[in-house]
């Protein structure tokens, strides 16, 4: 894992580092002064001005302002636990998948080691459990009555009515 966020200019295929020092840490900063602990998934904000990162080993959800490269932690204490809460008072255990709702108001997170699907309200960084009992399995059910086995891939229907989960 390079612990970097890289970008490719599609016109000339030039690859360059956009954010991340390469060190396996999880620190905020601008561009390459920031660091990540195994970034595993990316999604854009509803207006395309921010990039959200699942920082798996850092146990955080990070936000990169695309205009200035500022990397900030929006949710997650950095401890590998599963606690609902606001911002850094919440915790994740291996966030591995991300998808933004079509209206840009909610960020859905596949929390790999828990295993649950969590949701972050973008306006106030409130984190809550959306689905999954926390026990490994593949039981169908409503909300926390369902179970997942190491969820990681997420995609949402264009109308926002369905969330598809790999795992």
In short:
It contains no helices and 14 strands. It has strands at 5-8, 15-19, 29-30, 39-44, 50-55, 60-65, 70-75, 85-86, 95-100, 106-111, 116-121, 126-131, 153-156, 163-166. The strands form 4 sheets. A 5-stranded antiparallel β-sheet has the order 3-7-6-5-4, with no helix packed on it. A 5-stranded antiparallel β-sheet has the order 8-12-11-10-9, with no helix packed on it.
Would you spell out the secondary-structure blueprint of this structure?
Elements: E1 5-8, E2 15-19, E3 29-30, E4 39-44, E5 50-55, E6 60-65, E7 70-75, E8 85-86, E9 95-100, E10 106-111, E11 116-121, E12 126-131, E13 153-156, E14 163-166
Antiparallel strand pairs: 1-2, 3-7, 4-5, 5-6, 6-7, 8-12, 9-10, 10-11, 11-12, 13-14
Could you describe the 3D structure shown?
With 167 residues, the protein is mostly beta strands. 0% of the residues lie in helices and 41% in strands. The protein has no helices and 14 strands. It has strands at 5-8, 15-19, 29-30, 39-44, 50-55, 60-65, 70-75, 85-86, 95-100, 106-111, 116-121, 126-131, 153-156, 163-166. A 5-stranded antiparallel β-sheet has the order 3-7-6-5-4, with no helix packed on it. A 5-stranded antiparallel β-sheet has the order 8-12-11-10-9, with no helix packed on it. The model has no long low-confidence stretch (mean pLDDT 97).
